[in-house]
């Protein structure tokens, strides 16, 4: 639903991540403009000439992706996390770009 709302309501260019072929095809059917593997995202952004995203929605465990999201996000962008953190994050990584970090609990 996040892909569909991002496309239809917000009119965003949607970059999704998926590692399995079945998941990749599903993201494409839902309307994602680009589907990348979740590994080594900075290199894939460069290889595909993709601009830094203004918004990142992390629906899975953010622990292994927080630093990468901090690197990829555009200045004054927003990162939204849905899952609980399993460790502490260095939020100073967000300061240089004036990034907004939003943490949402579903069903609240």
UniProtKB/TrEMBL annotation:
Residues 1-99 form the Alcohol dehydrogenase-like C-terminal domain. InterPro entries: ADH-like_C, NAD(P)-bd_dom_sf. One of its GO terms (molecular function) is lyase activity. Transmembrane segments: none annotated. It is an enzyme of class 1 (oxidoreductase). The keyword Metal-binding does not apply. Its EC number is 1.1.1.-. Gene3D superfamilies: NAD(P)-binding Rossmann-like Domain. Keywords: Lyase, Oxidoreductase. This is Bifunctional protein: zinc-containing alcohol dehydrogenase quinone oxidoreductase ( NADPH:quinone reductase) Similar to arginate lyase. The lineage of its organism: unclassified sequences, metagenomes, ecological metagenomes.
